[in-house]
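Researcher: Go.
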Amino acid sequence: MPVGYCNGPEKPIYGMWNNVLERTTGGKNDAFYKRRPWYRGTTICDEWLLLSNFVAWVKSHHNWQGKALDKDVLCPGNKHYSPETCVLISESLNNLLTGRDAKRGECPKGVVNSKGRFRARVGGNGKRMEVGSFDTKGQAHKAYCIAKGIQVREVAESLTDADTCDIERTRIGLLEHAIIEENAWKFI
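Model: Structure:
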């Protein structure tokens, strides 16, 4: 463990780097992959294997403090950590695109079974909005997808330095996510 990286202003950066290494190696005895198998196959660029390079990249962003490293906002489905594929974003922006597959159960994304009816609701970015109640999972999921696409577009158009260290690249990535979200109902 490098001296000074665990107790000074770089402590959060060291934590980010350590998390990336765990996500790309599976941790001790693949324990990380057992808890989060969707990270299997995730890679890191050679440059970031050296902590000092990672610290330099993070610190090159004037507003890095309080941000999380994200690999798939810029490129949906990305599984590679590198300066070209990653961006530093706020926790609320990171939560905007979280699927929470493990907690969803049998319903599609954005849908909850409620006493024989299917409620669609959009969450993320610190807000939860009820979309409506429907007779079928399919109807509810389609309503969710359309509402989620709208929500992601609205967030993309109102990004600030508090949200991301790279507004323009993040906006472009979010607009790609909006298209994917709006059309996801077609693939269920």
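Model: The two ends are 46 Å apart (CA to CA).
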